[in-house]
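User: Please run a holo structure prediction.
Assistant: Happy to. Please share the sequence and the ligand.
User: Here you go; the ligand is guanosine-5'-monophosphate.
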Amino acid sequence: MSSDEPSIFTRIINREIPAEFLFESERVIGIRDINPQAPVHLLVIPKDPSYRNVVELAEGDAALLAELVAVAQQLADEHTDGQFRLVFNTGPAAGQTVFHVHAHVLGGSLTEGRLA
Ligand code: 5GP
């Protein structure tokens, strides 16, 4: 994808393509992953598409990264027993396919479903 093209997440944020929204604030959304890899698989995404991965986000806006973690905890409290894995795939070789930073919130029993 050219960097001029909006990411799939920007298109979701702009309501150009549908998604199951679980959370929205001024700077962050939470949606259900379309292809779950765990019993509960949510995505927490900043609206700002400037940061391609968590390293860039940590360097560029640490407060926004902290907000993502807080939203992840809130969603985990609402959708799981409050315990979860927080995964930021970073780079194609690590499985990253969308270069608009996002946190995977993976919850539910580790023996159910395949974990990412
Ligand atoms: P990555 O592989 O970049 O770490 O994660 C991208 C995630 O976005 C994948 O888990 C994938 O299932 C999810 N995803 C891709 N396209 C869509 C979509 O259109 N809607 C939703 N809800 N999730 C998507």
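Residues 62-79 form the longest helix (18 residues).
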